[in-house]
Amino acid sequence: MKSSNTFLRQTPDNGDVGHFCYELAAKLFPICRSLSGPGVRTTLTLLGQHLPGLTVHEVPSGTQAFDWTVPEEWTIRDAYIEDESGERIVDFKTHNLHVIGYSEPVDQWFDLEELDKHIYSLPEQPQAIPYVTSYYSRRWGFCLTHAQRVALKPGRYHAVIDSELKKGVMNYGELILTGQIEQEVLLSTYICHPSMANNELSGPVVTTALARWLMSLDDHRYTYRIVLVPETIGSIVYLSRNIDHLKRHVIAGFNITCVGDDRCYSYLPSRAGNTLSDRAALHVLKHIDSHFQRYSWLDRGSDERQYCAPGVDLPIATIMRSKYGQYPEYHTSLDDLSVITPTGLAGGFKALQRAIEVIENNVHLKTTVLCEPHLGKRGLYPTLSTKESSAQVAAMMNLISYCDGKHDLVEIADLIGEPAWRLVDILKPLIANALIGVCGDCAG
Amino acid sequence: MKSSNTFLRQTPDNGDVGHFCYELAAKLFPICRSLSGPGVRTTLTLLGQHLPGLTVHEVPSGTQAFDWTVPEEWTIRDAYIEDESGERIVDFKTHNLHVIGYSEPVDQWFDLEELDKHIYSLPEQPQAIPYVTSYYSRRWGFCLTHAQRVALKPGRYHAVIDSELKKGVMNYGELILTGQIEQEVLLSTYICHPSMANNELSGPVVTTALARWLMSLDDHRYTYRIVLVPETIGSIVYLSRNIDHLKRHVIAGFNITCVGDDRCYSYLPSRAGNTLSDRAALHVLKHIDSHFQRYSWLDRGSDERQYCAPGVDLPIATIMRSKYGQYPEYHTSLDDLSVITPTGLAGGFKALQRAIEVIENNVHLKTTVLCEPHLGKRGLYPTLSTKESSAQVAAMMNLISYCDGKHDLVEIADLIGEPAWRLVDILKPLIANALIGVCGDCAG
Amino acid sequence: MKSSNTFLRQTPDNGDVGHFCYELAAKLFPICRSLSGPGVRTTLTLLGQHLPGLTVHEVPSGTQAFDWTVPEEWTIRDAYIEDESGERIVDFKTHNLHVIGYSEPVDQWFDLEELDKHIYSLPEQPQAIPYVTSYYSRRWGFCLTHAQRVALKPGRYHAVIDSELKKGVMNYGELILTGQIEQEVLLSTYICHPSMANNELSGPVVTTALARWLMSLDDHRYTYRIVLVPETIGSIVYLSRNIDHLKRHVIAGFNITCVGDDRCYSYLPSRAGNTLSDRAALHVLKHIDSHFQRYSWLDRGSDERQYCAPGVDLPIATIMRSKYGQYPEYHTSLDDLSVITPTGLAGGFKALQRAIEVIENNVHLKTTVLCEPHLGKRGLYPTLSTKESSAQVAAMMNLISYCDGKHDLVEIADLIGEPAWRLVDILKPLIANALIGVCGDCAG
pTM, whole model, 2 decimals? Predict the structure, then answer.
């Protein structure tokens, strides 16, 4: 049996976490992020103001990471398309998405026909600028609304991209919050998306709020490893540097993305599908929104692809609001600050906070007496047996009946149809009366 | 391989078991039973007249049993409420339920307002006297029909309860029917409910009939342990005295309750849910009434709470007719002898008898030849192969095809969709022809 | 890791396999087959013309095989019923089914009443001659259409069956196609049914076509054991002679029957239900006809009864078109060459060929790199990331994500909802680029 000082933690009042997240997202929105470059560094600096202890790492271009190579660092200063009259008809200054991510520089006049080969637009969303990148193949290009594109008249155009691709570094942030034990919960989000809100400023800001909540606690059982990486290459690099440690220590974790709008909740499993992270996510979502969208591993599309890859096999699940690829504004300029809301962000935060609490509290429990305990003599049960009395205490009796040392809290909660956090309240007096014990071998 | 002399037992004609049960219940109905006291002893004496070998045990008040203490013995001689005119407007002699079980004595005049604090009634069932007890907290009180209660006029009332609570004993009955082997089937019922029929005189009388049936057999494989205890404290005391033996020997068993009406069949699982008792109960009920009510462990409410508690973990399931808490007359004076019927009791008896037979016959079976046996040469199969002939012997061939030594009789019966008792008839000639053998390691 | 020279085999063009099968069936149709005798030998000789290496075995009458004895050899030369005018009103020469299989000889005049005891017909199919046999009990009899039967007028009839039952042999054919490894796939069909097309000439002719396809391959991983036996006694004899070898070597196989009509596909499981054969059959049928009929072990009726019997336990499943017993012409003269079609036979062939390919290709696969491989640099992935690009390569990425060395090809194909043969195409470049390896311990 183990001290229950961290067990049975109460959720603190989260204050105005939705507005905190929204305002931080608004501040980060204009920055032009990519896999690397000054936009990522500015972003990490701003987040670091709220995350004391955040370490910003540098990985040199050309570094090998498993099957991948860190690409050159990309800097973009300006970009536009000018017509013959000298009017800037497309201007990077008006929206970061107007330039393909990792565009090589260009400064040249083209006929419309030639220029058009370098233009990307979405005919079905004529008011949206698409988000396009070409990290590993040298290209240049402009992304326009389809309305802009069809309005282009035949003629000559001056295409200018003042960008630079050169050996440099790729950056990522890392924050370790040491807990009572060495086992870790991994929270990962990505900081490479320029000027899009739900995917992906919601992830970094909600992750920041979660880290601040964890730092505010007296203590916590698990050590929390919070990483802010560029998507794909960032998580691959992070894994290549830490895989042995991660495989030994990480017992749960979440890829935090698309947690900002207020339209639905979504769940995407780990590859294994039945890890503690999956169980906690499903348990929480079932109780906070029984209509949550349930996706399969085949619907994946973010860093769980790396964290759960064969041979990596970390227990990383994903809790989202509207999932990437599933809402109309996805990967376009329409995914702006009007898509996310303080309520939506607070909901994403709360779902992840609940999941973390469930993981923290997910001990195995065991009764200390054989047969049902005599609760009446301790004032925990009505002393009068009437036709109705037993119903009043059903949840407590059901909980006790499964405290056999074999079921953990999530299993018991699912068996008896109650949220784990309600059981925590019921357990307090039972543990205080030494009727239920926490199994040491399960608590870590 | 083992002798099949007990295997393949035929169910005897049960005669008029329904009337036997009903008449015994009628004789027991007027007795005022409780956790302890003379009513329990009278009940055990009457049942003992049909159960030679029944031992009545005494447990002194104050005895510790796990987390519980045996309460004082309760004796009640008389009780009534008199109005100012001396009329007895409520009289224990007219119904045992008029007094709260374990009421302390009182003999005092009260204003109606004061008296009313000691009155219990059911507004939604105005003609029913509720069943109320207060075993572990000293109280006194009267239970009235709501019609009686609302008819009480303001004024003074004389409340008299001539009861006694003092150190004494708690009684329970125990009957062991020794079988061929030491492994045991536990049949438990409770004898603490005053003047209610389905819950709970049906349990004691059907259990008595089952014991008499078992005693009438030439022999039986398992040893039968039949216990008649006061609910909760009785099973806890019984477990505290016998738990090591029970955990080593009991391979199946049933808590026998609510087996007297004729409205439906019900099943409540053991906590584990997949014990031999559960499998036998489900198999029997599926074949005798495919519309039986299936409850979950969360719906429990009788001594399975103790027998299946964490660390006790006996394989005890429950087969009922209308389950406690689920029929309107439950725990009121309406649960009288009109609720139970000879047909209802005979049905409860038959379901439990079938389940016991299934358990007795539940051996693993194995063919003695490779490939299908040549049944035709033994006269067990039509010698003419026509378009229809194979259907006639489908059940026999299906049975043989699963006699691989890995499946027991219940599994095979479920796999091929036949009741186990039909398979017993089919097996007889196959075993007689030495084509199928009974696995010794499974039969015990 | 193992050479992939047999893995990833392409299905060759099967040419006009349907017509090959149909014409071979038409040639075999008139022969009067039974458990033994000249009809079986003629059949094996004709099939052997297409199966170089086919060995025809002889088993003497009276040979014991497990619980069975090989019956005497049956020869039939002529049979008829003559009326008083000398007209042959029933003539074996017009249809082999007119005589009960294994009829003993008769040459005698009877009154209609006496003759009628030896006549079999189907009142509900008045134009059909039923198929009736009496292998193990001496009888004689004629099978008539019910129309013929009811037209018989009172009078004297001359019944003649010029048959012979005497010590001789039972024959069966066996062809071994040696593969790279000793593990075997068993293909079994039966050659004892006279003059019926779907059940059972489709089995022998499709099996012949499958053997010819296998012989046409450069090589194959598994050794193929092809057996053509009389049903029941033939498979029992074959098992009794080969059971130890078969149990050690056979990893999959099919009983090939009823593969000739074009009305549906059907699946009947092995007794275990989850063998490689079952998994391959279900996978293939799901993708070639999602409406296939799924039967249970309880619906069995052919040689799987022996191959999957307790203690034999070979992994033999059955892929059919219209299953025996389930189509109106079954076991009557109506099951003629109009029931089967080249398209139906080709479909039966193709389903079994696909299942064999799936078994040949069913290796465990493992990625050679941690995290997702960088496919773009190898030209295997679009270099431009747009809103649509990832969908195009979803099947490839899904496949890679499950190449963890724990799942075999069928499991992966089922997990990602693709036919295994599509995955084979996707795997080729991945294996060629050394990104995916074949696990040696699984490939044999």
Answer: 0.93
